[in-house]
Amino acid sequence: MSEKPKYQDETLSFKDRARDLVSRMTIEECAGQLLYGAAKVERLGIPFYNWWNEALHGVARCGTATVFPQAIGMAAAFDDELIGRIADVISTEGRAKYNMYQAQEDYGIYKGLTYWSPNVNIFRDPRWGRGQETYGEDPYLTGKLGAAFVHGLQGDDERYLKTAACAKHFAAHSGPEALRHEFDAVVSPQDMAETYLPAFKELVDAGVEGFMGAYNRTNGEPCCGSKTLLVDLLRGEWGFDGYITSDCWAISDFHLHHQVTDAPTDSVKLALENGCDLNCGNMYAYVLQALQEGKITEEMIRESAVHLMTTRMRLGMFDESTPFDSIGMDVVDCPAHRALNEEAARKSLVLLKNNGVLPVDKNQITRVAVIGPNANSTTALAGNYHGTANQYHTVLESVRAALPNAQVWFSEGSHLYEKKVESLAEPDDRLAEARAMADASDLVILIVGMDETIEGEELNNGEFSGDKKTLYLPETQRNLIRAICGRKTPVVLVSMVGSAVDFEYGNEHADAIIQAWYPGAMGGKAVADLIFGEYSPSGRLPVTFYKEENNLPDFTDYSMDNRTYKYFKEEPLYPFGYGLSYTTFGYSNLTAASEIASGDALTVTVTVTNTGDVAGDEIVQVYLKDVEASTRVPKHKLCGIKRVSLAPGESKIVELTVEAKQFMIIKEDGSFAYEPGDFLLYVGGSQPDAYSEGLMGRKTACAKVTMR
Predict the structure, then answer these.
(1) pTM recorded for the entire structure
(2) Does the active-site annotation cover 273?
(3) Could you tell me if 254 and 384 lie in one domain?
(4) What is the tens place of the pLDDT at every residue in 610-642?
(5) Domain of 480: which CATH number?
(6) Which of 80, 93, 221, 247 is catalytic?
(7) Which of 455, 502, 626, 693 is catalytic?
(8) What's the domain range around 634?
(9) What are the CA-CA distances from residue 136 to residues 72, 142, 187, 297 (Å)?
(10) Is 247 among the catalytic positions?
(11) pLDDT tens digits, residue range 572-604?
């Protein structure tokens, strides 16, 4: 009887098994593993595998799945526990889909277990079309939510990964989309260490299996071939031991657009020698030619193959069975997953303005006009990088369901961005209908915004390429807002968009404004239920909403000066961390040590009371201000979040921990240090600045902490 080869011995470590397997492969077979469509090696039992899969807010691009709110909407929930539960559902449905496709012998793109999610880039500029894919502008929030997403995707089995998460796009990537293939993001060491890198480090600490490089250069080096980022920092200083993939066709940019190499084999050399194991694209089809030309070594090819085979081993692809093999398609969009999706949609909605019109008493409404290009749009529910929902709940359909005895009218009001709805009509051809419906109604629900056809990744929409040129909505929708909000009927303005916008006329003239993001398949129902008081809103803005007239830096400027809540010097439209409720909350008994030693974490407790008359969730936010720093530091920074649910009159003691590293300064050279001195600790439902406190109608609690 022949002895079982080591790579089939399930008692050995995955890394040892992968090394044994790769040692048995020819160099041609190894090279075939470095493309995202990895070739099969029949003699060794290696099946074909396509690495490319997406799961940003649900299993994407391979048919039916639960479509959760877009990532920016999930971030607005300020709830890492919720994010973890969502990611667990995604991985469960992912395994179900994988098992089904394997049984059907369908091994194509988007059918594997290696998800290129989450996107933990920092949403530093509101014009960026892909910002909707992120968790917002704050590194602490992004890192905390991203780590929870990774844990949920990868599972808690002691041996196997449930699915493999991937941190992207490493690093300093946030537009402009039109320039990304040739752009050099010039970033200071201080901004890199403080803003662009922390979330990626959190994901390494969370055990993320994969990393994806960015299209752009960062400080002169193309990210997918950057020694600084991939070798020195990621593999070296951070000790990352998973696989690294290029973004799709990014390696060809080295010679075609960045022009840092002269030919495909030079680009292969730059990427492979700096640790990019996998090529999403076709440049690694030149690997053997680069080897023949002496530009790379056989050892480099084999080392990358080991990284890739180790990941596949960790997913159980070479074992007799895994704990996930019995997950069937009955879990996809099952009632429990749909209920979680509705919970997520509810928690993602942010109430920006309310002059008292909300919540609406359904019994007092006999006629309602639901108006706007996103009122009955399933595209706007889904965002980008999405799956196909088994059922969608638009705002129009959900309002009709909520008001079975009322007259519900519908008008598109305008096209999403074109000047007219019908091709042969005059401009603003739906305004008269919308005005007439508004005048005849007790209430107008006006649903505006964008969708993935005009806001997203490198779109073919002229000079914008998916980005925004202005913070205003398209002109045709601005005309609609002006026409409807200028009438006597109360207007609830609902914004379905993946980024910060300035509502212009609607800022002052809408009676209420709800930021709904791209709220997922259950989003319309969540919006209707919020309007009619089925629950109290609790979402908070994960990005600053600027005014169009604010003096934002140039889109291509990657300095953080006058960007995000940390460094913005003007008054915004709506601040980061802001969101209204139907009830009120009070804070008391803030306790924290008045002195701590360098390197110590700080335990904070506070009593939170629902001082209103309806149940609601409060988002407790902890901010830290260094008042004696010897270098540039933020005005204040988020360093703790906790969601707490309270009945009317109920109080709870909330405990949070401020990590020791939050007390460190980051010097101009990017180094970290503890610097003794005084800090101000703020705890409340918003930022501690006067503008945020004025909008919320209450102060944050404050305590002084001295670090020795």
Answers:
(1) 0.98
(2) no
(3) no
(4) 999 999 999 999 999 999 999 999 999 999 999
(5) 3.40.50.1700
(6) 247
(7) 455
(8) 585-707
(9) 6, 7, 19, 41
(10) yes
(11) 999 999 999 999 999 999 999 999 999 999 999
